[in-house]
Every structure is written in structure tokens, then in C-alpha cells.
Amino acid sequence: MFLVTKDEIDAQCTKVRYQPELDAPAWSADEKYEASAGSTAAVAAGKPVPAPLDIAESLKSVFDPEIPTNVYDLGLIYDINVASSGDVVVLMTLTAPNCPAAGILPDDVAKTAAGVPGTARVGVILTFDVPWDKEMMSEIADVELGLTI
């Protein structure tokens, strides 16, 4: 999916990162999430739920410990599904299936997303179906990592 964030708009980025086959499913209590956080008690009655872009912006504070760029600009966040209940499912990947950060990144993503006002439960699904490659990175990440001049 890859939402265009404020930083990308401000930097006048033109790289298209949309991939329609990457859709996060709706929240399901039956799903075995890689990581989860939050609760239905976290949503106050009548409080507006966040937009997917709000969640995406929050995930810019989560960094891959091996690469000095946030998980969103790296292109590791494939899609964000926000239900009217405030429940959120994040579909993400890692730079490689054997990535050493596999034990911490999904949990960091879940906890960070759960901290966005109006968010209830957050589930993170890891996928490698559509493997990550550097073309999924934003132009901001390309510049940060010295891949573009």
C-alpha cells in the first residue's frame, strides 16, 4: 500500500511505492499475530479512530537496529488496516527472512501503533510474500542511506 507521508510531501518526493496486492486483513481474534498490543479498553466512547496515515506517521519513530532508517521509509510496512472500532492490523515484512531484528521489530511496531490516540488492539502480521527489496524504500530513505544523489 505505502501511504505518502507528510515528510515525503514536504520533500516533493515522486517515487511511486504503491503495490495493490499488499492489503492487510481486518482484525480477527482468531489470527495468530506475530505481535500485538493495546486493548478495546484503550478506546474511549466517541473518540475518533486514527486514519492509516496517523499510524504510518507514528511508525516513523521505529527504527531497524541495523539500518539507520525508520521501518516505514524502509518500506517494511506494507499496509495498515484500521477498523471503525479502532482495531488495527499492520502487514509488514523484514529486509530478509533471517533478519536478526525479527524478534523485536514487530513488537515495536505493535506498541508504537497502539500508542496512537483512538487505537484499540493492534496486530502485526509478518509476510515475505512479495519479498522486500530496496525499490520499496522511500526517496527519503534512499537519500538517508546515500543511495541517491
What would your notes on this structure say?
This protein has 149 residues and is of the alpha+beta class. The chain is built from 5 helices and 4 strands, in the order αβααββαβα. β2 and β3 form a beta hairpin. The longest helix is centred in the C-terminal third of the chain and has 10 residues. The radius of gyration is 15 Å and the shape is globular. The protein starts with 5 loop residues before the first helix and ends in a 5-residue tail after the last helix. The model has no long low-confidence stretch (mean pLDDT 83).
Keywords:
globular; single chain; alpha+beta; 149 residues; 4 strands; 4-stranded mixed beta sheet
| Category by helix and strand content | alpha+beta
Total strands: the figure is: 4
What can be said about the biggest beta sheet?
A: 4 strands, mixed
**Total of DSSP H or I helical runs spanning 4+ residues:** 5
Task: Give me the strand/helix succession.
Answer: HEHHEEHEH
